[in-house]
Amino acid sequence: MSSYIIYFAIIILIPLWAQWKVKAAFSTYSKVENYNRISGAEAARKILDHHGLYNVHVEMGSGFLSDHYDPRAKVVRLSPDVYHGCSLASAAIASHEVGHAIQDKEAYSFLRIRHALVPVANIGSNFSWIFILIGIFAHLSGMLLLGILFMAAAVVFQIVTLPVEFNASNRAMNEVISLGIIRNEEERNTKKVLNAAALTYVAAAAVAVLELLRLVMIYTGMSRSED
Fold first, then answer.
1. In degrees, to the nearest 5, what angle opens at C-alpha 24 toward C-alphas 20 and 29?
2. pLDDT digits (tens, 9 = 90+) for 2-40
3. How many other C-beta atoms can be found within 10 angstroms of the C-beta atom of residue 54?
4. Bridge-partner residues for 59, per DSSP?
5. Which domain, by its residues, includes 117?
6. Which of 33, 42, 97, 185 is catalytic?
7. How many domains does the chain have?
8. 191/197 Cα distance (integer angstroms)
9. Which keywords appear in this protein's UniProt record, sorted alphabetically (predicted)?
10. Angle at CA 17, nearest 5°, toward 122 and 211?
């Protein structure tokens, strides 16, 4: 029983720790203005124009750290603090989202794979636990295996997301430096914001893999007991 308590504590604490790191980094560096006092919206527009992405719009969204790139609408949506803010954090987050727009333009392979996996991952996330719970409580290994397969699709999506996010952050750093959005001495703190944001994706992938492995072990034990 104690091992289960430790396990569930770990999978709960890892995402909470990652979210805390992001919020702490943003809170710290949202108070540090970038040297050129360029807002997140201005930084995004500058990078987009540099890459000829005039058809991609920059809009203010709602919510805290709700920033994202919408590939269907061709819109970079920035949360109010990032959109208006002239901080290192605003420049980092805005440029990261533009990194996804550049990936979209260049048909970045992992981004294309992630887009292709979206419907499969959605099905896996929505239905996997139905089959898993039925399989466990009814002791039906076949039903459990079906749930594991659905969950595996969602886990693959989480894993494929990692190179997409890291690549977008690398692009962001290159852009903000080469276009003079930040100065070289601001690079280290800008990276701290991007690295903290990346932790949320790493944490999500790690938790997903751990949970999948746990279920595979349950399935293996159940299959042996049925033999």
1. 155
2. 677 777 778 888 889 999 999 999 999 999 999 999 999
3. 9
4. 77
5. 2-226
6. 97
7. 1
8. 10
9. Membrane, Transmembrane, Transmembrane helix
10. 45
DSSP state of 227: -
For 85-105, write each residue's pLDDT tens digit.
Answer: 999 999 999 999 999 999 999
What does the DSSP 8-state code read for residue 69? E
175 and 95 in contact (C-beta within 8 Å)?
yes
Residue 71: band (very low, low, confident or very high) from pLDDT cuts 50, 70, 90: very high
Alpha-carbon distances, residue 147 vs 69, 125, 169 (angstroms): 31, 10, 34
| pLDDT of 81 strictly over 70 | yes
CA distance 180 to 171: 14
What are the contacts of 46-49 at 24+ separation with CB within 8 A?
46/179, 46/181, 47/95, 47/98, 47/102, 47/175, 47/176, 47/179, 47/181, 48/76, 48/98, 48/101
The alpha carbon dihedral of 126, 158, 5, 137 has a sign of positive
By CB atoms closer than 10 A (0-12, 13-18, 19+), residue 220 is exposed
Q: Give Rg (Cα) of the chain.
A: 21
Instruction: Kindly list the distances between the CA atom of residue 190 and the CA atoms of 5, 32, 128, 187, 212, in Å, as whole numbers in the listed order.
Output: 37, 10, 38, 5, 34
Length of the chain: 227
CB 205 within 8 A of CB 162: yes
